[in-house]
Amino acid sequence: MKNNLKSKLPSTGTNIFTKISSLANSYKAINLSQGFPDFEVDTTLKKLVKKNLDLGFDQYAPMQGVLKLRKAIAKKHHQLYGKYYDEADEITITAGATQAIFTTITAFIGPGDEVIIFSPTYDCYQPAVELNQGKIIFIELDSPDFKIDWETVEKKISTKTKMIIVNNPHNPLGTILNNHDLSNLERLSEKNNLLVLSDEVYEHLVYDQRNHLSVCQYQNLYKRAIATFSFGKTFHITGWKLGYVLAPKNLMREIRKVHQFNVFSCNHPFQIAISEYLEDEDHFLNLQNFYQAKRDLFLEIISASRFIAKPCQGTYFQLLNYSEISDKPDTIMAKDLIINKGIASIPISVFSAQKKDENNLRFCFAKKEETLKRAGDILIRI
Fold it and tell me: 303: buried, middle or exposed (CB in 10 Å: 19+, 13-18, 0-12)?
């Protein structure tokens, strides 16, 4: 029988994370590729989940999310950024940040709408735009600093441009946006009447006495910005798939129209557990020091290696440049390290729209101290 199916994503296959993790498992390699911790979830949070399971919260949660959790989020964001989002109309709980991003793009992007994305880029933005028949305008960022040239951005904006997507802190690069960046983003989005989608899932993972800057802190940016967040990244519970999206009421109204049909509601007892866990602010305020200690340990260990490292500013990913070790393409180098050395990383070129290869590999340091030391012992012998 003739296959008449036409793929909506003809150039998309199995993503790099699945491929690398599968290869790492086959060769029993230390897996520093994918962004998931190998240490236990806080027992306090696990006990709260068990308590709420035992209390019988087994049915659908409200579509917009449990009110107690939305109130906790409103309080947290006001405390951190001085901006209050109304729990009734401006906060929605989602099945992770990826769902929040997909729902937001689906709500606002249609055929022919242009979306500016900075490359290298996390892999979930492009397919969401393409599935909604939008057109992506990539702007490539260059190693080692990966700074945004805002004059280039302004030149790329056209009458068809509908949205700019930013990732702050940035996965896979480990960079952060500063006041200069966000002020320019505010200026250009207001001047050209653009929406801004800000992926801020690593908001608490910013290092060296820096502070995370959120789009909500810029008044003219806040009015046109949608921001997405992840409890999975914050509390090392990636398998629970819970996050949230923040936006002004007029934008959230459109997001919820889509959300109610592609997810409707998210895990009920887990939402209540997280709302109670957020009552102790140390659970999120201490994350910066917790992860910086892991970053610093990893950098200290590999300082004896031939890899070149510029300390990441945020996230739990560290780029290592191997240009003094080999001239192999990064995809080949990553594969070789798994098969021959027993350590897994992600090649940065796979995140680049141009497949630009600057000999950079991404390593996740959200691991136990013993895992980082074992990984470091391998890297310093390469």
Answer: exposed
Instruction: Considering only the C-alpha atoms of the chain, give the largest distance between any 2 of them, rounded to a whole number of Å.
Output: 63
H or E element, residue 199: strand 195-199
Residue 125 and residue 165 in contact, taking contact as beta carbons nearer than 8 Å: yes
How far apart, in Å, are the Cα atoms of 314 and each of 4, 80, 110, 177, 281? 46, 17, 33, 10, 20
Burial class (CB in 10 A: 0-12, 13-18, 19+), 277: buried
Give CA–CA dist 326/340, Å, rounded. Answer: 14
Dihedral sign (CA 208, 237, 266, 75): negative
Tokens at 183, concatenated: 């002020």
User: Which segments of 27-66 does DSSP mark as H helices, in order?
Assistant: 43-54
Q: How do the domains of the chain map onto residue ranges?
A: 16-35+285-379, 59-279
Flag whether pLDDT at 1 surpasses 60. no
Q: Please tell me the distance from the alpha carbon of residue 315 to that of residue 145, in angstroms, as a whole number.
A: 15
Cα 85 to Cα 78: distance, rounded to the nearest angstrom: 8
**What's the CA gap between 110 and 98, in Å, rounded?**
19
**What pLDDT, on the 0 to 100 scale, is given for residue 166?**
98
Tokens of 348: 């940065």
Give 159-193 pLDDT, tens digit per residue.
999 999 999 999 999 999 999 999 999 999 999 99
Compute the distance between CA of residue 103 and CA of residue 114 in angstroms, rounded to an integer.
Answer: 17
Residues 136-157: pLDDT tens digits? Answer: 999 999 989 999 999 999 999 9
Residue 2: which pLDDT band, with cuts at 50, 70 and 90?
low
User: Cβ distance 95 to 242 under 8 Å?
Assistant: yes
Q: How far apart are CA 267 and CA 261, in angstroms?
A: 16
Distance, CA of 110 to CA of 123 (rounded, Å): 20
pLDDT in tens, 283-338: 999 999 999 999 999 999 999 999 999 999 999 999 999 999 999 999 999 999 99
Q: What are phi and psi of 25, to 5 degrees?
A: -65, -40
Rounded Cα distance, 26 and 260, in Å: 40
Q: What fold does the segment set 59-279 form as a domain?
A: Aspartate Aminotransferase; domain 2 (3.40.640)
Give the CATH number of domain 16-35+285-379: 3.90.1150.10
